[in-house]
Design a protein that fits this description.
mainly alpha, six-stranded antiparallel β-sheet, four-stranded antiparallel β-sheet, globular
């Protein structure tokens, strides 16, 4: 609800109000509903204009706009002109969301503040990261210079081992090394070895629960293992995805009788992702050989970028279908390049290109962006391969003929899946954001403004989660680093990378980004001057995935939607851009070549080191402890926190995590000692105070717990849990009015917290504030629509309310029927509620039959009181009456 008070010196003769709401709403002026104004969702972008003079008066006036939105935050744009007076929507408006306390409205185009208590508060700043990593960066730079000097020495040496090495690299005698450049192969072999070392080291240390949509991916795999069949999009969160990746994973786990949720199963999935990432690098190498057959330096530049690009490195640590889809697209690009560069068409290469595209489409449907470009390149080649003096129709036919075989192979491999999805949903490319699926969801911000697309720069201040500030920041931070914490929503719980080195890597990547932009200019210039199938294919692929990412950020307006690795299938074109920019600048002289190589090697070492999880870093074990505790394994979590404290007795978060794990094991005295030590070291630690409240609350000291929670809230006003814990304590203390106020303050921070709405509704019910109780029970049901007990409680209140203005028979019937459906009509209490709802709706025949069913089930289950109550109510229904609670009951 948005509201604004203002004063007029006299009643206006005429006034113009212009309004838009996101997405539907109502308007009141001075308490009067403006019924002639309809604000509907179907055309919410169209401004409504109305003369509202008759509603305004001299002196104080109040505008109140109630806005609702099922798939985003309510938003308002309003202007009012009344004579010389003008009013616009600004930060002076007051707003209350979902019954929260009133606060100043936020400007839609302004990034939200991240204050103490916010899960994203405490992100590393670039400036502090540079101070912490300065010595390492100097060593990396020195190493890079030494390596360049060593290579230069080998290249110019005329005797000894160095000369023999130069001869081997420049004049190889073995046929294999004449075909594959020994220097490039050496770099590729070293990179594969480094990947093997990294992925042999990291997986046992990485926090088990981290990973983009990890639970959704593992649920899909487990579904296949359990049911032996393929799900459709309405069966689970990630089950709209094509099935190939999940089938392969199920095939890897099944023989060992493992599930994707076990530690061993998850380890196998991580190894598979790593192997997929390595294969992607190798395929980029093969493609670069086709693109730059005699240019060793450009091939090395390309494979260094492919192997050490953070978007590829961090993603390959997690279970995901992204890497496999990107691999198949790159394979398709390789065979397409071979076809385009060949003197004559090859049926085998056509089949291979079509098969790779089909497998890519069977892995992730975003691969569809590559399909038209591959076939355009093939058709172009077929068109060009015919003699110019032939008729245009004949040349076009030759181009189409070049596409038939790969098209048929692609359709045979993947067409059945999309036909199956289309047959079920009427859309072959349905996603979990589609309203047809039972996953009504949205994430902040829930909308886009133009400024979010053109702003840029926060990634050079606080890179982590910088997608909050702009599209460009999100793209840059997730391309050159793990800017979304691998899907984490908390600073304290994320992969245990070296974020100081990662932040330094963002700065080192600036010249590489500029080189890629120079390459893009060169590519565009060449396409415009003399287009070729190769440049159309690779340049078009980059443009297609860039367009796809922008489109999806509009379609799903979430901060987390900006992920550079969505364009990982365009890794080869990105390497091409860097190579083109590199080629241009290196021609400016040997000094520039030296600078470029020093920069590239320094960036490479920094990026690799940033992704090395240190076994000596306390955060490694703190993050593992948080992950294991989230899984309910508190004894194991306590061991991890203890390991962190053994490395550093003042490790941030470790002692609070240990105390939390001890509290959940009912080791209250040990937990208290840990919290006392933490608060002695950090007296203003809001998390420690909140956990101290939990500690004393578990022991029944609710007054002490409430006091500690108030201290925590004063220190961290956006703490996500403190308000809920305080409300629970106040409820136990019988302070219902205070409970309601704390819940409303908590809803300011987390307005979609069903538990807060439940606590508030219960407190209001005890105070006989039935209007508030029903309002917040409704919020609770909207947020958890498949919880039978919550559906039942609201249905009973709507059916039996003593206030006729608050009763709603049809709504009570719908809620109670859903509750009974979820429990297969096997719960007599729920059936009793349904009978009461039927009676309130005037459906007495159904009420009597349902009450009889409740009696029978209750009697069979030995629930004599339930059976007795329903028999008594049945007699009331037979008399054609509904039962209502007596006033004050």
């Amino acid at each position: 609800m948005f509201s604004r008070e203002f004063s007029l010196s006299a009643p206006p003769q005429d006034s113009v109000l212009l309004i838009r709401v996101f997405k539907q709403g109502t308007l009141q002026i001075n308490g009067q509903a403006v019924n002639e104004l309809t604000l509907q969702e179907k055309d919410w972008k169209r401004p409504r204009t109305l003369d509202v003079s008759r509603y305004l008066r001299a002196g104080s006036n109040t505008l109140t706009v109630t806005v609702s939105n099922a798939f985003g935050p309510p938003a308002l744009s309003l202007s009012l002109e009344a004579g010389q007076f003008k009013l616009d929507t600004d930060a002076e408006w007051r707003v209350s969301l979902a019954g929260a306390v009133s606060q100043n409205a936020a400007i839609a185009a302004t990034p939200p503040p991240i204050r103490p208590g916010n899960p994203l508060f405490g992100r590393e700043h670039i400036s502090s990261s540079l101070r912490h990593s300065a010595l390492s960066l100097v060593l990396f730079f020195v190493f890079s210079l030494a390596l360049i000097i060593a290579v230069r020495f080998v290249r110019h040496s005329k005797a000894g081992l160095a000369a023999r090495m130069r001869e081997f690299f420049n004049e190889p005698k073995h046929p294999f090394f004449r075909r594959y450049d020994p220097a490039v192969l050496s770099v590729l072999g070293l990179l594969v070895l480094l990947w093997g070392v990294l992925f042999g080291h990291n997986p046992p240390l990485i926090a088990p629960l981290v990973g983009f949509d990890r639970d959704g991916h593992t649920e899909y795999i487990n579904y296949i293992l359990e049911h032996g069949s393929l799900p459709l999009a309405d069966a689970g969160w990630q089950m709209y995805q094509p099935p190939l990746y999940y089938l392969i994973c199920a095939g890897l786990l099944g023989p060992f009788d493992l599930t994707a949720s076990t530690d061993s199963g998850l380890m196998i999935l991580r190894v598979f992702s790593a192997l997929t990432g390595i294969a992607q690098v190798v395929m980029v190498f093969f493609c670069l050989r086709v693109l730059f057959p005699a240019q060793r330096g450009l091939q090395i530049v390309g494979i260094l970028l492919a192997a050490l690009l953070p978007a590829n490195l961090y993603l390959s640590h997690h279970p995901t279908n992204e890497g496999l889809a990107a691999l198949f697209v790159t394979i398709a690009l390789y065979f397409t390049l071979r076809l385009v560069r060949a003197d004559s068409p090859s049926r085998k290469l056509q089949i291979a290109a079509g098969a790779a595209l089909g497998l890519a489409l069977l892995t992730k449907f975003s691969a569809v962006l590559a399909v038209p470009l591959v076939f355009l390149a093939l058709a172009w080649k077929g068109f060009e391969s015919t003699t110019p003096n032939r008729k245009p129709a004949a040349r076009l036919y030759a181009g189409m003929l070049a596409c038939i075989v790969p098209l048929l192979v692609m359709l045979i491999i993947s067409g059945w899946h999309y036909a199956r999805v289309y047959n079920r949903f009427g859309n072959p490319l349905i996603g979990n954001w589609d309203p047809k699926l039972p996953f009504a969801w949205w994430q902040d911000p829930g909308f886009r403004t133009s400024s979010w697309y053109w702003r840029f720069g926060n990634t050079f201040v606080t890179p982590l989660f910088s997608s909050i500030f702009s599209f460009g920041d999100g793209l840059y931070s997730s391309l050159w680093g793990d800017g979304l914490g691998s899907g984490s929503a908390r600073v304290g719980f994320r992969p245990q990378w070296n974020y100081d080195l990662m932040n330094a890597g963002y700065l080192l990547a600036i010249p590489l980004t500029l080189l890629a932009l120079c390459g893009a200019v060169r590519l565009l210039r060449d396409i415009l001057r003399r287009p070729t199938p190769v440049y159309i294919l690779l340049g078009g692929l980059l443009a297609a995935f860039a367009f796809g990412m922008i489109f999806m950020t509009l379609r799903v307006a979430s901060y987390a939607q900006v992920k550079a690795f969505y364009a990982l299938p365009a890794l080869l074109p990105f390497c091409l851009l860097l190579a083109l920019g590199w080629e241009w600048l290196s021609k400016q002289g040997p000094l520039w070549r030296g600078v470029l190589w020093t920069l590239l090697i320094t960036w490479s070492v920094t990026t690799y080191s940033a992704h090395w999880i240190s076994a000596r870093a306390p955060f490694t074990y703190t993050a593992r402890g948080l992950s294991i505790a989230d899984d309910g394994k508190y004894a194991e979590a306590a061991q991890e926190f203890s390991r962190a404290l053994a490395l550093d007795a003042n490790a941030p978060g470790a002692r609070v995590g240990l105390a939390s794990a001890l509290d959940r094991q009912q080791k209250f005295e040990e937990a208290r000692q840990q919290l006392e030590a933490e608060l002695q070291q950090r007296p203003n630690n809001a998390d420690a105070l909140a956990e101290a409240a939990v500690n004393v609350g578990f022991q029944g000291h609710y007054d002490q717990a409430a006091e500690k929670l108030r201290q925590a809230i004063a220190l961290a006003p956006d703490h996500p849990n403190a308000f809920q814990q305080l409300a629970i304590c106040l409820g136990w203390l019988g302070k219902k009015e205070e409970t309601i106020q704390v819940c409303r303050e908590g809803l300011r921070v987390t307005p979609y917290n069903p538990r807060l709405h439940k606590i508030l509704a219960d407190a209001a019910l005890e105070l006989r504030d039935l209007t508030n109780a029903i309002t917040h029970f409704r919020y609770e049901v909207e947020l958890q629509p498949d919880q039978p007990d919550k559906l039942n409680n609201l249905a009973w209140l709507l059916a039996s309310n003593p206030d006729p203005h608050l009763r709603n028979g049809p709504e009570a019937v719908a809620l109670a029927e859903r509750a009974c459906e979820l429990t297969r009509r096997e719960q007599p209490v729920l059936l009793g509620t349904l009978a009461a709802a039927y009676a309130e709706a005037g459906m007495f025949r159904e009420a009597i039959a349902t009450a009889q069913q409740a009696c029978d089930l209750a009697t069979a289950a030995g629930q004599t009181e339930v059976a007795k109550t329903n028999r008594e109510l049945m007699e009331i229904y037979r008399a054609g009456k509904a039962w209502h609670q007596p006033p004050g009951m």
